[in-house]
Amino acid sequence: MTLPIVKTAIESDEAGVIEALKLAFVADPATRWVWPDPQKYLSHFSDFVKAFGGKAFACESAHYVGNYSGAALWLPPNVHPDVDVLVALLQSSGSDEAKKDGPEVFEKMSSYHPNEPHWYLPLLGVDPLHHGKGLGSALMQHAIVTCDQDNKCAYLESSSPKNIPFYERHGFELLGTIQVNTSPSIFPMLRKPRKL
Question: What's the pTM?
């Protein structure tokens, strides 16, 4: 099986990439804890993507496969999510539990980030219609080559325990578990660069 071609998103791809991620995260434990109401999820997820990983578009580190069947937003070293916008979005539209516990979840997430410059993966997802076709692996392989070339760590938080084995296959190691009151568990993971 040949690996799908990974493309770098340009400005005209932004909407397609965000819609792909919206489909990919529709049953994600963490995002649906924030927006259990389907209408609120569909209304606010795009703003969440823009605040959490949207800087990847300007950095040319937003990637997609197929006809937006899957996508990944990577933030290069020293580029960070817009946490103030994320917290404001949580407070204005999230569930009562997320409003109460979300800021502490974000705080714990930031405590696991490596201190040295690193690549950060806020979002990687594949449309459920296309699961099992190697799209997620293609997106991951495309990015970790850059991490290895740059000799930089890669860091992410898996928002679903089901995805941990996928990330481990790509060299990530589990660092711990983040869980606050009613929040679902989130799993910080780190991948050290490999010699090419």
Answer: 0.95
